[in-house]
Design goal:
The chain folds into two domains: about 110-410, Chloramphenicol Acetyltransferase; about 415-555 and about 600-625, Chloramphenicol Acetyltransferase (2-Layer Sandwich). The longest helix has 26 residues, at about 490-515. It has helices at about 15-20, 45-55, 65-80, 80-95, 100-110, 115-120, 135-155, 170-175, 230-240, 255-270, 270-280, 300-310, 350-365, 390-410, 420-425, 430-445, 475-485, 490-515, 520-530, 540, 545-550, 600-620, and strands at about 120-125, 165, 165-170, 180-185, 190-195, 205-210, 210-215, 285-290, 330, 340, 380, 410-415, 455-460, 465-470, 555, 565, 575-580, 585-595. By secondary structure, it is of the alpha+beta class. The structure holds coenzyme A (COA). Coenzyme A (COA) binds near residues 1, 349, 431 and 456. The site of coenzyme A has 19 residues, from helix 13, helix 16, strand 13, helix 18 and strand 15.
Length: about 625
């Protein structure tokens, strides 16, 4: 996601990821077998990045603006570009990954807006087959068993190394998903991690029900995971112990980070509350058992479910039944509605979806295979003593703030069932690039102009790699969009424009995932300047830079085997957030916008995407593909 808030200082993350990477003892299992031999993230050549940058901003600028930006780039090329490039190359020699700590800080820990909606994505699972409380708790127990099954592979480092094509990928994100937590700070957050092979790794869950939080041990006295039946009994006990809604303390975690940090400091002053906070932070993850579900109009059920996963529906529904700092929160709601929410600091969607696919496979199996574990203890309610009146006021304020935020989010899930990724493949086109062109056309149809578009490119081919940006808007995509809207053009010509635009995008993708993207490089040049007490370069102050970083469309492909869909909020007030799961015969989209912006509307954008997908298929089928 294009969630980049670049501030001027660079700090280290509290959990030093580079140390974890280089401590050879940690990584002995299959999962990390190629970790040390993965290449280091390169610093692309300066000239190459600047040329690509100019190409990428061209469709967004007038001729006059473009001439001005060309001059800014020429100046940067002379000074201070080469000096910054050399400093960055030196940093790259020293660090395992020159970007990773910077990225964690600038994109996540320094970001001050609420993580809810703005940072943390939701994932909606396919609707499950239960309708009453017993069914809900039985499913939750099975989900936990499936998760523990997956966790064993992480703990023993037996997960197979993932690959992209033939390239093995960095597996570090998996290592941090089931043991991490974000901690609010007044200017910058920190992040803690209790990995499986260090002292006191997490062995418990925190279960949220009716806004109360419970400590639930995952393993019995012999270190054996609780059986699904035992988990069910424990969950029943928790529900029995929390019949009425508690003070919505969890809402504090949905607040602006500076505000939350102030409340957090007050909470720490009470010993028992401090222990409760530590229990949450040191847990495997949260399991949220939701009680309420808003009514949905027919056909809107999936969108309602998506909202429960993204923000919980507000103070009247489930937003307080969360702890949004925790890396993973599985959410099991009423009537088969379930999914998760994850805090983004440590991982992208694909590792999360890999866990989801495993859990859903596991839950699909009927038999109970696990045996009861001895010596289990009853779950324990966590106490929070709100000693300071200010805390109660802050919670009241958090109620108002989450309700406004929820009201502002316009979110819809849309299943396009006419065709899936098999169609573009049959046309010898990359499905991902094809879909990106559908977004470009959809936007152009609505607004008669192109816009800066973000797509996530994975950098996991490199040690500790995270993401770069694919700038999906290009001169070719603009020509294609204009051409499609031109009724005088033949299908043949339109299809040619589409193929050209797809090829250009695919080429950008191929380079970005090889570490030759431009956005993280440009960010690095800026941050190295600041680190060396130099000014922010004029290139980064130029309107072309801010315009091309204002992502009116922010997108991510997150494929899943199951009919799961990831959803996230737009990254700018007047933008769209679009996540998509291209399956063979259908494509699932989660599309968001903000209601406060009169120009954007998720339904309107969805309709336009649908129309683009129909029209693109029609022109391809009505044209002959050149043999060249
Ligand atoms: N003709 C026929 N088939 C083609 C083709 C062509 N010209 N080009 C690609 N394909 C096939 C591929 O072989 C692949 O086949 P598969 O279904 O058997 O795996 C399939 O089409 C999909 O390829 P494509 O659509 O090109 O996408 P990709 O899988 O290469 O992914 C990105 C592209 C950019 C999404 C991926 O590289 C990436 O970086 N993902 C990041 C995801 C992420 O981190 N998201 C963050 C969420 S928070």
């Amino acid at each position: 996601m294009g969630n980049v808030c670049v501030k001027h200082k660079v700090h280290r993350v509290s959990c030093n990821l580079q140390r974890m990477q280089t401590d050879g003892k940690l990584f002995v299992g299959r999962m990390f077998s190629v970790q040390d031999s993965l290449p280091k993230l390169p610093v692309p050549p300066l000239e190459q990045t600047l040329q690509k940058y100019l190409r990428s901003v061209r469709p967004l600028l007038t001729d006059e603006e473009y001439v001005n930006t060309q001059k800014v780039v020429e100046d940067f090329k002379r000074d201070p570009g080469p000096k910054l490039q050399s400093l960055l190359e030196k940093r790259a020699q020293k660090e395992t990954n020159w970007l990773s700590d910077w990225w964690t800080n600038t994109a996540y820990l320094e970001f001050r807006q609420p993580v809810t909606v703005n940072v943390s994505p939701g994932v909606v699972f396919p609707k499950q087959n239960y309708t009453d409380k017993e069914g809900q708790l039985r499913f939750t127990a099975k989900l936990i068993s499936g998760l523990l099954d997956y966790k064993t592979m992480i703990d023993k480092q037996t997960l197979p190394v993932e690959k992209m094509g033939k390239q093995p990928l960095c597996m570090m994100q998996y290592y941090k998903i089931l043991c991490g937590c974000r901690i609010p700070g007044k200017k910058k957050d920190s992040w803690v991690c209790y990995p499986p092979d260090e002292a006191n790794p997490p062995k418990h869950f925190v279960v949220a029900h009716n806004n109360a939080f419970f400590f639930l041990e995952a393993y019995g006295s012999n270190n054996q995971a609780l059986s699904t039946d035992q988990l069910y009994e424990q969950l029943k006990y928790i529900v029995y112990q929390s019949k009425a809604p508690e003070v919505p303390i969890g809402l504090l975690t949905t607040e602006n980070r500076n505000k939350w940090a102030k409340s957090y400091e007050l909470l720490l002053k009470d010993k028992e509350t401090k222990t409760s906070l530590s229990i949450i932070q040191r847990s495997i993850c949260l399991i949220c058992i939701d009680n309420k579900l808003p009514d949905s109009a027919p056909g809107e059920e999936e969108s309602t479910a998506a909202k429960m996963m993204l923000h919980g529906g507000g103070s009247q529904f489930n937003s307080a039944n969360r702890w949004c700092d925790k890396t993973l929160q599985f959410i099991v709601g009423k009537n088969g509605v379930c999914g998760l929410n994850y805090e983004h600091t440590t991982a992208e969607g694909p590792p999360i979806i890999s866990i989801v696919d495993h859990i859903l496979d596991y839950c699909g199996k009927n038999e109970e295979t696990s045996t009861p574990s001895p010596g289990i203890k009853a779950p324990r309610k966590l106490n929070f003593n709100l000693k300071f009146p200010e805390l109660k006021e802050n919670i009241e304020e958090a109620v108002d703030n989450i309700d406004s935020l929820v009201k502002d989010v316009d979110l819809n899930v849309f299943k396009f069932t006419e065709y899936g990724k098999n169609f573009p493949k049959s046309q010898k086109l990359s499905p991902d690039s094809y879909l990106q062109m559908a977004f470009q056309l959809a936007y152009y149809r609505l607004y008669s102009k192109p816009c800066a578009t973000y797509e996530t490119a994975s950098l996991r081919q490199f040690q500790l790699g995270r993401t770069d940006t694919i700038r999906s808007c290009s001169m070719e995509s603009l020509e294609f969009s204009k051409g499609m809207m031109d009724s005088t053009l033949s299908k043949q010509k339109k299809a040619e424009l589409l193929r050209k635009a797809v090829a250009e995008h695919k080429n950008y993708v191929a380079e970005a995932i090889k570490g030759q993207g431009i956005d993280r490089h440009l960010l690095g040049l800026k941050l190295i300047a600041l680190q060396n007490n130099m000014k922010v370069p004029a290139l980064h102050m130029d309107m072309a830079y801010s315009l091309s970083s204002h992502h009116n469309i922010s997108t991510s492909q997150v494929p899943a085997k199951h009919e799961a869909c990831l959803v996230f909020g737009p990254t700018v007030p007047d933008g769209y957030g679009v996540c998509y799961n291209p399956q063979e015969k259908q494509i699932i989209f989660g599309v968001s916008a903000f209601n406060c912006c009169p120009e954007t509307e998720s339904r309107k954008f969805i309709d336009s995407i649908r129309q683009s997908l129909y029209e693109m298929k029609t022109v391809l089928e009505g044209s002959v593909q050149s043999k060249l």
